[in-house]
UniProtKB/TrEMBL annotation:
Similarity comment text for this entry: Belongs to the peptidase S8 family.
Signal peptide interval: 1-28
SUPFAM superfamilies hit by this protein: Subtilisin-like
InterPro entries: Peptidase_S8/S53_dom, Peptidase_S8/S53_dom_sf, Peptidase_S8_Asp-AS, Peptidase_S8_subtilisin-like, Peptidase_S8_subtilisin-rel, T7SS_pept_S8A_mycosin
Gene name of the encoded protein: mycP
Active-site positions on this chain: D61, H96, S267
Domain of life: Bacteria
Location of the protein in the cell: Cell membrane
Pfam families: Peptidase_S8
Protein name as catalogued: Type VII secretion-associated serine protease mycosin
Length: 387
């Protein structure tokens, strides 16, 4: 066995969040027995209402194999923002992206579709946006240098081309990780258009636990990983931006060569949550990203003491409970785009309205104080003249 850690191309994405642990190819009909994550998040209960019909999930990744038997007729034409590197049929093409797509929207195959990988939202569509290259792609270093804005461009492209959810099973959690204004602005653009954005919290739990981007940008639904027993995965990054948790160890995924492997990381955890968001959006189409985020946190399972912590966020995602709770919600308009990234926030960050409210809130007090000063000065002048 070997560990493959996929790193991004354009913006020095040290994507430890993309780590997978390939296993000996499994028989397709044995895969379902290994898909413990679906039961853990109560996906089957959610399917009584919807399987993600009418929803498109943009997968910003290494590409997706549209011919994979578990994804046939699910994958829309790909947008390649890298433009070079490995292609279909190469060993270093679309492994990670195909795996994430199968976790989100795999529908299985064979008689009754009883074989292969079943995703969280098996009726959803996948919109592949290639923004990074696989770790073993010989062109990876070139892409890092020449395609520095691929992720930001991919977010905007997806937002303008039909995405209902944006999944980013990637991130930079290196020591030099820092917010990029272009990425932040692109995420706020997507949120302003009513599109929830999901990202991996990072795999740096055992390697410095550095903040990971894009997970740490305001408004992003950042996902940590749990193990089969429900414990925090040791590799999962623990930080203030954690929103919810999802299965991230021993996750069955499809591969472009039509084999399967068991993966680990906050990458598949993010894919689980993107699938959950697709189910919620399918059942309640007009909810805003903020409402969906609040539904995920308010209905999560195994909520930590105090309502959240850095290990699990608000707890294990539960789309069935979220769909049920949403029945009592009235859709609200999208909030204005959050202000530029400046501080750390748990939640969507400051908005233009919040800033205006803060600014106008002190004007009456300032005006009143100035009036009192003028009155006092007038009294002093009057007394001197009288003397």
């Amino acid at each position: 066995m070997r560990t493959t850690v996929l790193r991004g191309t354009a913006i020095a994405l040290a994507c430890a969040a993309l780590a997978v642990l390939p296993a000996v190819p499994a028989q397709a009909d044995a895969i379902r027995a290994q898909q413990w994550g679906l039961e853990a998040i109560h996906a089957q209960q959610a399917w009584h209402t919807t399987k993600g019909e009418g929803i498109t999930v943009a997968v910003l990744d290494t590409g997706v194999d549209a011919n994979n038997p578990d994804l046939t007729d699910q994958v829309l034409p790909e947008k390649d923002l890298v433009g070079f590197g490995a292609g279909p049929g190469d060993r270093s093409w679309a492994q990670h992206g195909t795996g994430m797509a199968s976790v989100i929207a795999g529908h299985g195959h064979g008689a009754g579709r009883d074989d292969g990988v079943l995703g969280v939202a098996p009726a959803a569509k996948i919109l592949p946006v290639r923004v990074i290259l696989e770790d073993n792609d010989p062109q990876r270093q070139r892409a890092r240098t020449e395609k520095a804005g691929a992720l930001a461009d991919g977010i905007r492209w997806a937002a303008d081309h039909g995405a209902d959810v944006i999944n980013m099973s990637l991130g930079d959690d290196s020591e030099s990780a820092h917010p990029e204004p272009r990425e932040d602005a692109a995420i706020q653009y997507a949120l302003g258009k009513g599109i929830p954005v999901v990202a991996s919290a990072g795999n740096g739990g055992l390697k410095g636990n550095h903040v990971s981007y894009p997970a740490a940008y305001p408004g992003v639904i950042a996902v940590t990983a749990i193990t089969h027993p429900g414990n925090r995965a040791g590799f999962s990054t623990r930080h203030w931006y954690a929103t919810v948790s999802a299965p991230g160890e021993g996750i069955a995924m499809a591969n472009p060569d039509n084999t399967y492997y068991l993966g680990w990381g906050t990458s598949p955890a993010a894919a689980f949550v993107s699938g959950a968001v697709a189910l919620i959006r399918s059942a309640h189409r007009d909810l805003s990203p903020d409402q969906i985020r609040r539904l995920l946190t308010s209905t999560a399972q195994d909520t930590p003491e105090g309502g959240r912590n850095d290990d699990y966020g608000a707890g294990l995602v539960d789309p069935a409970a979220a769909i049920k709770a949403a029945a009592d919600l009235k859709p609200t308009p999208q909030k204005p785009s959050p202000a530029a990234y400046a501080h750390r926030y748990f939640g969507p960050g400051p908005t233009a309205d919040d800033t205006d409210a803060t600014t106008t809130g002190w004007l009456p007090w300032t005006a009143g104080a100035a009036g009192l000063v003028l009155i006092a000065a007038s009294l002093v002048v009057w007394r001197r003249r009288s003397s």
